[in-house]
Amino acid sequence: MNPTRSAIDVVAPDEARRELYESDEHEWIAQQIAALRSGRLHEIDRDNLAEFLNEMTIRDRRELRSRFSVLLQHLLKARMQPAKMSRSWLRTIVHQQNEIRSTFRDIPSIAQYAERLFADAYPDAAREAAAETGIPATRFPAASPWNIEEALSFTPAVPKRAAPSRGKRIERRK
């Protein structure tokens, strides 16, 4: 066998593409891109490409649902325990809001799934917020008290903390 020949040259092309899809997704993608760009459409692994693209859309929706869940969890904690609001909670809220807005900008068509994903994310968010706060889950609203627009524009105030006490200074003996 010629050492410069790839597995795709030795094995039947369709079978080799399928094997590459299973063993090295990155290289498989590179080959699909090269074939598309050069117009070699007969080299496209259509079945796996269709599966891959479908999985990408599922991943995008799953990520949006996850971001909604984290955002809602922190909004619930801020609502249920406003005195415990921290800069960390606020940073998480702002970060998730920014990432969700970015997703809507980058993938406009995902908006058609947003309401369902938002509603689906709420029960998990409430359960996680209950676990983290120690507040019984039954005390959380049964459905989100916010719609998407409200959740993306909500900015809870960070309460001012009293300055930490300085305590007594301990001197070291030499």
Describe the structure.
With 174 residues, the chain is mainly alpha-helical. It has 2 domains: 9-44, no CATH class; 59-153. It is 65% helix and 0% strand. It contains 7 helices and no strands. The chain has helices spanning 7-10, 13-23, 25-38, 46-80, 87-106, 111-133, 148-153. Helix 2 (13-23) crosses helix 3 (25-38) and helix 4 (46-80) crosses helix 6.
Sheet/helix structural class: mainly alpha
Distance between the termini: 78 Å
> What composes the largest sheet?
none
pLDDT under 50 segments (min length 5)? 168-172
Helix content: 55-70%
**Any idea what the radius of gyration is?**
25 Å
Name the quaternary structure.
Answer: single chain
Number of domains: 2
Average pLDDT for all residues = 87
SSE pattern, N- to C-terminal: HHHHHHH
Please work out how many helical segments DSSP would assign: 7
What percentage of amino acids are in beta strands? under 5%
Number of strands: 0
- Structural shape: elongated
Offer a concise description of the structure.
The protein is an all-alpha fold and 174 residues long. The protein has helices spanning 7-10, 13-23, 25-38, 46-80, 87-106, 111-133, 148-153.
Can you give keywords for this protein?
174 residues, mainly alpha, 2 domains, 7 helices, 65% helix, disordered C terminus
List the helices and strands and how they pair.
Elements: H1 7-10, H2 13-23, H3 25-38, H4 46-80, H5 87-106, H6 111-133, H7 148-153
